[in-house]
C-alpha cells in the first residue's frame, strides 16, 4: 500500500513551523480554522467549507486589512491542509473503529 | 490568479524554467505548476511528496482508478479546474473517455465494478460531510475492499481535498484543452515530482 504518513507529517510540520511570513500562531489558527480575526476568519472558513465560493473580494478584504500576499498565501494553504487533515484523520479513526487495529498515530507536529 | 505573487513573484530560476516550459511544450504554464513552484520549500515540495506517494506509490488501485478518485473528490468540492485536469489523466490511463464522464455524471449507474463504486461513494461522503463512520468502512470491507485499499483511497482524498481548495481559493484560470492535455500526458508519464 502507499504510505503518506511521513510525507504528510513533514508537510504539516513545515507549514506550521517557525519560518513563514505569518506568525506560527496565525498559521496554526488558519490550520485549525479557529481564533482568527475578521476578515481572515471568513476567508479560512470559506477555504475549509466551500472554497468554490471564494471571490476576489474575499482575498481583497484580507489585503486591505493589512496582510501581505505571502501571508494570505500561507493562510489559504494552512486552512486547506487543516480541513483536509481533519477529514483524513476522521476517516482513519473510522477505519480503526471498524477493524479494531491502530495503523496511524494522529499527526500533531507540536 | 488572485495573488499576483503566484504569477510575478517567482524566483529568477523558476521564471527561466517557465520560459523553457513555454518554448518546449508550446503551451502556457499551468496555474498548478505556478502554485507548487512558488516558495516551494513551504508548500510545493512537501506536498508533492505526499501527492506522488498517494497517486503513484505502491497500491492495488491502478493509476487510472486513483486519478478517477482524484477527479471525483475535485468534482465533489466543486472544483472545475481539478476535475477537468484529473479526468484527462484518468481518460488517458484507461484509454476510455466514456467511463470517466459516466462516473462523474452518475456514479450509481457508471459501468465500473462494485468495490470501486463503493469506494468512490465513500470518498464523496467524506468530502461532503467531513467525516465517516465505522459502518461506512464495514460496508467497504464487506464488498471485498481491503483495509489497505481503503487507506490508499483516503490518501488520494487527503491530497485532492487539499489541492481542490487551493485551486478555487487562488482562482486557477482554465487553460485551453491542449494545455490541459499536455499536463495530463506529463502527469501520466512522470507523476507528481
Provide tags for this entry.
heterodimer; A: 110 residues; mainly alpha; 0% strand; elongated; B: 193 residues; 11 helices; 73% helix
In short:
The complex is a heterodimer of chains A (110) and B (193). Chain A has 110 residues and is mainly alpha-helical.
Give a written overview of the molecule.
The complex is a heterodimer of chains A (110) and B (193). Chain A is mainly alpha-helical and 110 residues long. Chain A contains five helices and no strands. Chain A has helices at 5-15, 24-32, 40-50, 56-64, 69-99. Chain B has 193 residues and is an all-alpha fold. Chain B has eleven helices and no strands. Chain B has helices at 4-8, 12-25, 31-37, 44-56, 63-76, 80-94, 97-105, 114-129, 134-142, 147-170, 177-190. In chain B, helix 5 (63-76) packs antiparallel against helix 6 (80-94), helix 5 packs across helix 10 (147-170) and helix 6 (80-94) packs across helix 7. The two termini of chain B are 23 Å apart. The chains are: A mainly alpha (110), B mainly alpha (193). Chains A and B meet through helix 1, helix 3 and helix 5 of A and helix 1, helix 4, helix 9 and helix 10 of B.
Main beta-sheet annotation of chain A: none
Q: Treating each run of at least 4 consecutive H or I residues as one helix, how many helices of chain A?
A: 5
Number of strands of chain B: 0
- Share of β-strand residues of chain B: under 5%
Into which percentage range does the β-strand content of chain A fall?
under 5%
Low-confidence stretches of chain B: none
| Bulk shape of chain B | globular
What is the overall pLDDT average of chain A? Answer: 93
Order of helices and strands of chain B: HHHHHHHHHHH
Separation, N- and C-terminal Cα atoms of chain A: 28 Å
The total of helices of chain B stands at 11
Give the helix/strand layout.
The complex is a heterodimer of chains A (110) and B (193).
Chain A: H1 5-15, H2 24-32, H3 40-50, H4 56-64, H5 69-99
Helix pairs in contact in A: 2-5, 3-5
Chain B: H1 4-8, H2 12-25, H3 31-37, H4 44-56, H5 63-76, H6 80-94, H7 97-105, H8 114-129, H9 134-142, H10 147-170, H11 177-190
